[in-house]
Each structure stands twice: as structure tokens, then as C-alpha cells.
User: What shape does this take?
Amino acid sequence: MDKLIALCKRRGFVFQTSEIYGGLANSYDYGPLGAELLRNIRNLWWREFIQKRPDMVGLDTQILLHPETWVGSGHVASFSDPLVEDTVTHKRYRADHLIESWLEKNGRTDVVVEDMKIDEMADFIVQNEIKSPDGNDITRPRTFNLLFETAIGAVAGEKSKVYLRGETAQGIFTDFKNIVQSTRVRLPFGVGNIGKSFRNEITTGQFIFRTIEFEQAEIEYFFDPESTDWKLLLESWKKAMWQFVTETLGIRESNLRWRRHTDKERSHYSKDTYDLDYHFPFGWKELWGIAYRTDYDLRQHQEHSGHNMEYTDQSSGRKFIPHVIEPALGINRTFLMVIADAYWDDEANNRTVLKLHPSLAPFRVAVFPLVKNKEKLVQKAKEVYSQLAEKYRVAWDDRGNIGKRYLYQDEIGTPFCVTIDYQTLEDGTVTVRDRDTTEQVRVALTQLADHIG
Ligand code: GAP
Assistant: This one.
């Protein structure tokens, strides 16, 4: 993990937010390369799940919704984590996280922390004398709401209180009727929404894995439970998620697994929930969740807002509230997975490589003039750069020797490096060097785009 964090900082993938002021806990900025990688992940998700499917539409909803949305959805009442406090340092921790690390340290596999209610956690902490990471006593766990409160300035008092959204999903539910009425969608269909969510996470750490501000890409797939078998639908979505991670993002299957939520752990409104876990450097953790949420959310909003949320079946005229399957992905967690999976200490060649899938790499190709003080070489290299830039994000580098330029591009995951040399001026060929094999081949400029793929 330390190596990943160092690489992310050294090469401009991730910086600590407002570092010059000492940083802000659990907050990160994405540097020039990180911004490209993040955008590539986001775009691939949108392309695969929204644009390539006739049964899907996209949405872009607000971070600030009407505050009653979060009352109706149940977040105000129960979107919480179990909080404990170190009685000496007053640092706060999640009780389930402290219990989890105690279980690991003591080799206990007979207890599943996800199954514990808050009172059970309290008893377990007392029975086993679990302390804070600083070795001090901790308070009894209490529920701590994760919603971020803020205020709209124009109105004083209670009415001005709003929440930064805790998930992108609720924007989909509140717009459900508008979508049905304004488009030609018919059940079954899905709606995707992508954007920032905020959670007042108690303890974080683990770099960008759990932050207070993060990006989600969520889908609500609406269907009629009388004509669609939810189990088959859930399976088909699990398959699509697996395919996206392994084929589109190129992640190794051996680092992935499905984990089904136990009956105790599952939210009361969900009939079945799975996590797609990735084997992060700090263990197996959730990357992507999928849940069959029945008609819970639309029904809650119907009851709370008084607004009819029913769908009318065109052929039979039957009115009902659709059921929903929800695949919910974190974009930043995907970023961490992608970097962790791609990281390779290539000892044979004494280099560090990010073996990123070409469609994820910040730059698809780098273009180098062999030397920077030969005008004809530089001019030709600029031509090649401009041609490639029509299609790809291209890096330009004319500093230092070619070997050093290769090493830099390896570290940032650029799949190909193209060098324009004296032979290029004579026969129109360039040297193309492959990131993973380090092999170099001569390729005609007319074939270059095909070679890069
Ligand atoms: N609407 C369902 C929902 O929000 P979730 O499991 O709480 O479900 C979905 O969140 C995904 O969002 C997670 O699988 C994870 O990838 C990401 N996520 C959740 N909290 C996060 C946090 N604090 N920091 C980074 N990513 C987070």
C-alpha cells in the first residue's frame, strides 16, 4: 500500500487535499494523471451501462435534494454507523472496525461482525476488553448519522436545513415519474446516475478507499415482479458487473469474489444482496454492491410525499409500484482497485510498471523526438503527435535520454512509446516500444494507429 500511495503522489495521480494547510482528513485530490484515469473509468461505465444498452437511460441529479427526500428514504432515521470514542484522546472509531481488527488479531472466525446489532457490539467490547488503537478504554457504541448537514442561506430556521446527498440513488427514485412520462421507456428498464456523494465517515484511513466525499455510479433497474423473475435478473446483472470489471477494466479474476450478505446483515428492505469484493492490499473489501430492494424506495417516497409513484402497464392497464435491482459502484474505489491490480515491480528490468488496460491508461501513447535540438526531428514528432491526438490522449516528452523517458511512461502506465529518429525522416518508420514486454519494433507511420489499436 505504501508503494502505491508513493507512486500516486510521485506521478501526480492522487494528492492530499489542501496539503499546504496540513490536509483535510480523509480527503484527496486527483492530480493531472488521476483526473484522466478517473474520467476513463467514469466514461467506460457510462458507455457500457447506459449508451450501449437500449433498456437504460442516464440521469444527472443534484447533490442537494429536498430534505424530505432523506426522511422518506429512511436515511435521517437510520443511515448510521456505530461510533465509539477513545476516553483519553477523544479520537473516534467505528466499533465494527475495532471489533473486526480484534477478531483478526486473535484469529477468531466464529464471529461475524456484520451480523452484530449495536448492543451486541457493546457487550462484545466489554467481554473482550477491546481498546482503542492507542490502548485506551473506549466508550459504549452509539449510532452516528452519516448524512452531512448544510444550510441554504436564504431562509432562516429549520426550513433551511438540507443534506449533501449520501447516495446518488435517491435522485433516481424521486425522478422516476418524470422519466417514465418524458421518455419512451417501458419496464423493464434501468436508470444510471453518476456523481459525488458525501458521508460523514467516522474513521477512514486506507487512502482513497473510504473518504467523506466520493463518486458513485448507481443504477436502479425497474421491473414488474409479476413478469420478470428477480433471481434471473439479479444473476444477469451480476454477470454484467463481473464482465465490466474483468473485461472492460482488465482486472484479474483471482482478485475478485462474490460475497452474499447474511440474513442478519442484509437491510430489512432487501431480499438479497451481494458484494463484489476485490482483494485490496489490506484485504478483501467491497468494490460494488448489488441488492434486490423490492418496491421499498418508491413506496416510501409515495407514502412520504403523497405523490403517486405507480407505473401503468400499457397493455393491461394494471397499476403497480415497480420493483428494483440496484448495482451501486464507487468510482474512487474502482480507481484504487485498478492501480493496485496494475502495479508491478518488474525486478528483471529494474522498473516499476502500471500495467493498466489501454482504455484506462491516462495516455494511450507517448511520442518522443530522439533529441530535442534537431528541428526536423521535432517537427516530424509534432506531426505524429497531432495525428495521434485526434484519437487518443497522447504524452509528449523530449527531455533526457530515451531510457529514462521509457521508465517514466512505464510508471504512469502508458502502453506504447513512439520514437521519431533519423530513420523516420528517410523511410517513414518509427520505433514503437511495448510497455509490458519492453520489446521494440519498427512500424510504418501509415500502420501506427492500427498497431496502437
Ligand atoms: N445506494 C446504495 C449504496 O449507496 P453503498 O454500499 O453504501 O450502497 C455503494 O455504496 C458503493 O459506493 C460502495 O460499494 C463503494 O464502492 C462506494 N462507497 C460507499 N461509501 C464510500 C466511501 N465513504 N468512500 C468511497 N467509496 C464509497
Notes: The longest strand covers residues 283-294.
